[in-house]
């Protein structure tokens, strides 16, 4: 039990907390002062977390996934996974942050004593208790651990047009021109991976994007900007300079046996 100014804010109950990095573990956390639980982003769901116990939804899943088509009002995993929970209430707000990057499942109960049951695939119970006492202070305590975002450029706050994928530079220029024609505000247009030569980042498809400099000049002439997406996955191909350079400098993520991790092509 954890109190703040003599008010009970957080109750923890742990299970299977063994001293092993490859051992799954679970624990429960209750927020006696809370009316509703929030957090554990990112899901296409309401800001207030739904009850997932009997009669509710499936548990919330935390795992970074590239989901091309996702369900609304669902606890399914999406791009982001942020294991932070907030429990605001009239007598104080508390929160927890689990510093663990493993896959997690979270059961939520919203009743007279809102609580979460957190199941973790592996790693350590590296848990931070955030005692607020206000919602603003809880968030400040959280970002004091993780760091805050830099102030973005003004244009980055505007409207961004992005899709997978534009077929050619002529297609891109046509889309930008139509935004102007129909007087629809546009600050940035994004290109997904198909602009590259065979899905190799830092390259251009010489057939479909034969003059990227001219394309960018065409876009910037109307005070718009171009962003080319560069995801953190490098194509495994000998002779590709980015792959060869990273391999030589031993920069790739490793498997448990020390070999280079290679993702599955979907």
From TrEMBL:
Keywords assigned by UniProt, alphabetized: Endoplasmic reticulum, Glycoprotein, Glycosidase, Hydrolase, Signal
Native organism taxonomy: Eukaryota, Metazoa, Ecdysozoa, Arthropoda, Hexapoda
Gene3D superfamilies: Glycosidases (3.20.20.80), glycosyl hydrolase (family 31) (2.60.40.1760)
Entry protein name: Glucosidase II subunit alpha
InterPro entries linked: Gal_mutarotase_sf_dom, GH, Glyco_hydro_31_N_dom, Glyco_hydro_31_TIM
Keyword presence, DNA repair: no
Protein family according to the UniProt entry: Belongs to the glycosyl hydrolase 31 family.
Chain ranges passing through the membrane: none
SUPFAM superfamilies: (Trans)glycosidases, Galactose mutarotase-like
Entry GO CC: endoplasmic reticulum
CDD domains reported for this sequence: GH31_N
One Gene Ontology MF term: alpha-glucosidase activity
Residue intervals of the Glycoside hydrolase family 31 N-terminal domain: 23-107
């Amino acid at each position: 039990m954890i109190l703040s100014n003599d008010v009970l804010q957080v109750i923890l109950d742990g299970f299977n907390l063994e001293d092993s990095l490859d051992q799954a573990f679970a624990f429960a956390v209750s927020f006696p002062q809370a009316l509703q639980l929030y957090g554990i982003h990112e899901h296409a769901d309401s800001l207030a977390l739904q009850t997932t116990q009997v009669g509710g939804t499936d548990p919330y899943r935390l795992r970074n996934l590239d989901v091309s088509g996702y369900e609304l009002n669902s606890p399914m995993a999406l791009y982001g996974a942020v294991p932070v929970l907030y429990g605001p209430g009239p007598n104080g707000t508390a929160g927890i942050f689990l510093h663990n990057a493993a896959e997690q499942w979270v059961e939520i109960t919203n009743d007279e004593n809102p609580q979460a049951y957190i199941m973790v695939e592996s790693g350590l119970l590296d848990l931070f208790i955030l005692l607020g006492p206000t919602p603003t202070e809880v968030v400040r305590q959280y970002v004091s651990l993780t760091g805050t975002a830099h102030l973005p450029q003004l244009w980055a706050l505007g409207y961004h047009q992005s899709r997978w994928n534009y077929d050619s530079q002529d297609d891109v220029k046509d889309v930008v021109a139509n935004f102007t024609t129909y007087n629809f505000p546009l600050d940035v247009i994004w290109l997904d991976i198909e602009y590259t030569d065979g899905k190799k980042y830092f390259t251009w498809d010489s057939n479909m994007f034969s003059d990227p400099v001219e394309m960018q000049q065409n876009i910037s002439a109307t005070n718009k900007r171009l962003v080319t997406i560069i995801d953190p996955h490098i194509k495994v191909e000998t002779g590709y300079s980015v792959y060869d350079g990273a391999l030589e400098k031993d920069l790739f993520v490793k498997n448990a046996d020390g070999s280079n991790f290679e993702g599955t092509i979907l």
